[in-house]
């Protein structure tokens, strides 16, 4: 077994190298190894100073995240934290200058180890951060006490509550790094350490009090951070816990602050919020692991692309490619639509430029990567085509037939359909192995989710290429099966069905939206439909009616189609479920919807009643998770985590709640099943428990266990 922490002496400097691939996490043996080797260096007459460095591509990326799930109780957490704090105090008391040499990332416990060193140097591309909040915890090894002392309270608050990484240049400016090393990191760190040894200098972070001396300013910054979090935390607790711990650096001495941090950490690490976020961390990486596809499976290089249709989605998809540096041919059916599509793209880039996010030159460079056309010229050169024409079965089939003729045999043909059968397009193309669904979410240049729909004949190479491409486009690619609506929209139909029925039964549109934003969604189901376009769902329902189907079984509310017929498509027409003042996207409740709901309720013989927020949340979540269980049982999603990743990245499901399947597990599957049965009795047979939910509940299991 290779040594986790190695020791050698070079130019009178002891070099302690952490070698725990892939990211040098602080797995069992690593902290102990660092302590042992630094103690050895302290006693080694051949060493005048010490450098702590990581092997491979990075410094220490933090605690081993797998450990958090194994902490059984508060006492164990307190014990573990006290031990790590004592270890870092001992490092800081090393009698010889101790220098952290950072490349890659120094994150979480990694930065905390670095801050317990006397100095930190890093390469220009290095990044540092305290991302624990993204795992529902706070820095647990003195980070909330040393970071404000090094970089000041505002920086500590920002890094800890948002989990952002800081670049090397920013870290230098803020005092986290002492020097940037151009060229060889180890050589630079050794030179730095020798200079400190020669000058007899040692600086202990815990003794630096200048940056926290103005207590009043620090406390004001903490109050402002708490106020800011009310807008963005969406019900998560860990960001506030970070502020509480940093505040302790102002109100208590170093030892007292550490004690407070240890206690707050214990509260967080045992929370459901942390369990959900840790599960998501691994689920987000697991989605890339698809049976039959290895890391080195053959995949095609995507160097150029074409998009067919320059509407809402086609434009956003073209931008995603361009943003990844991939040139795009953008095809439309008519000049007017093409001009409109291009002007929307230009406007989007110009808005980014006006906010200072990109320069004017970058706008022009991005636009120069798009080649507009009304024909098919150049399609024989591209590596992939994404079809994003209207959601019309016959139209899409004819486009695929054409694509089969005009593209190279090895070109991947992807459809952005929201619901339709990929296999039929595959057949129409005459090249089924290269056909796949690439279901982007609106706005496609912003939303991170890409559902990769695997058709009956999609080759492994097509899927492997899609997974790699998703990463290149900055998306989270999740492979799903080919069923109506795939995973995201298939489940969404149940979420919306329940919302519409709640509306008819007596809840208002704004009350339903409020209940779900209070739950943690960035927007509720009605504001979301007004953004996406009520016409999109209406066309899908029209198609389904034409083939004698409905989206989700049970009573179908007539109100969405009534809005469509009135031309109320949402924000784009100035009215939908809400009204919109010109130039303002703030939704204004419209009494018309209440009238429509009254009529719909009367037609179904319902007496409208007051409905509590708990019932709203419970019914839509139960509907989501129950259908999620059907999706899993049919193999349309590979794992419960895939569904949760889809909901977090496609619909803004609150991360700290883990996703619909984690939510069900947290509630307990017997309790969820009891709800389905209760709703069946109260509301009708369209509530039908998923056989998988019934089985797992009977076996005392969860979706994840
Ligand atoms: N613990 C365990 N495994 C980890 C890990 C960690 N801290 N960080 C990454 N990994 C694993 C990933 O699960 C992945 O494994 P698989 O290949 O088996 O899927 C592998 O390392 C590579 O990770 P990525 O795919 O994410 O690689 P990347 O190059 O895209 O990103 C990274 C690298 C920036 C380090 C990213 O992995 C990351 O952000 N990791 C988490 C860092 C973090 O949150 N650290 C704080 C931990 S909490 C803490 O330290 C508490 C404390 O105060 C004591
Ligand atoms: P849209 O109506 O905004 O754009 C469709 C565009 O396709 C129009 O500009 C039209 O002129 C063009 N078009 C039609 N026939 C064409 C042809 N033969 N060649 C080239 N262009 C042609 O529609 P939107 O919303 O962009 O949807 C496109 C696809 O994306 C649909 O399949 C839809 O279901 C799917 N989708 C839509 C989402 C949304 O939120 N709007 C989300 C995810 C997928």
Would you kindly provide a written description of the structure presented here, covering whatever features stand out?
This protein is of the alpha/beta class. It has three domains: 5-270, 2-enoyl-CoA Hydratase, Chain A, domain 1 (Alpha-Beta Complex), CATH 3.90.226.10; 305-480, 3-Layer(aba) Sandwich (Rossmann fold), CATH 3.40.50.720; 488-635 and 639-698, Orthogonal Bundle (N-(1-d-carboxylethyl)-l-norvaline Dehydrogenase, domain 2), CATH 1.10.1040. The protein is 50% helix and 11% strand. It has 28 helices and 19 strands. It has an eight-stranded mixed sheet with strand order 12-11-10-13-14-15-16-17, with helices on both faces. It has a six-stranded mixed sheet with strand order 1-2-3-4-6-9, with helices on both faces. A hairpin with an 8-residue loop joins strand 15 (435-440) and strand 16 (449-454). Helix 3 (109-116) packs across helix 4 (143-151), helix 5 packs antiparallel against helix 9 and helix 9 (238-251) packs antiparallel against helix 10. The model has no long low-confidence stretch (mean pLDDT 96). It binds acetoacetyl-coenzyme A and 1,4-dihydronicotinamide adenine dinucleotide. 1,4-dihydronicotinamide adenine dinucleotide is lined by residues 308-314, 331-333, 337, 388-391, 395, 399, 416-418, 440-442, 532-533, 536. The site of acetoacetyl-coenzyme A (CAA) has 22 residues, from strand 5 and helix 3.
